[in-house]
Amino acid sequence: MTRPTRPRSPGLSRGLFAILALIWPSSALAEACTTERPGWDGTPANAISEALFLASSLPAVVLIVATALALRFRSKWGGLAVVSGWSILISLRVFGTDPTGTRQKATIEGCIGSPTLFIALVAAICIATILYTAPTERRSND
Question: Residue 141: inside a domain, yes or no?
């Protein structure tokens, strides 16, 4: 003998849809994307697009040029300055405060990707700069 099935209550389905509509990312989050990434085309950002976006910012471009100059002239102090600049830039990007929460909302929406690739590239640039501009003369123990 089979159990008779009851018809579903329409109130339960409406309640479930209402809860999902409140939780699901909506136009309020899209407003965060227009603030953080004004030219966003709607495709989810990945690590490569985020790295390109961060590398094309004005502080990063200035640091790229300064790094190239420090490497060209093999300047110890120039290398120290650009490594410090890269460290400050990454620290502000990773540990910087966002009192409005728009960066987190934009990350949830998908217009901001993970900055991990950019951080790894900057770390490689800093290591190469330190190794290339390190002094090569040896000290004598006389």
Answer: no
Tens-digit pLDDT profile for residues 12-44: 566 665 555 555 554 445 688 988 898 888 899
Asked if residue 126 is part of any domain, the answer here is yes
Q: How many domains does the chain have?
A: 1
Closest CA to 65 of 82, 89, 43: 82
Q: Does residue 128 fall inside a structural domain?
A: yes
CA nearest neighbour of 107 among 124, 119, 126, 93 = 93
* Percent of all residues in the chain with a pLDDT value above 90, rounded to a whole number: 58
- CA-CA-CA-CA dihedral for 74, 56, 101, 18, to nearest 10: -140
Amino acid at 139: R
Phi-psi region of 38 (alpha: psi -120 to 50; beta: other; left: phi over 0): alpha
Query: Is residue 140 included in any domain, yes or no?
Result: no
Start-to-end Cα distance in the chain:
102
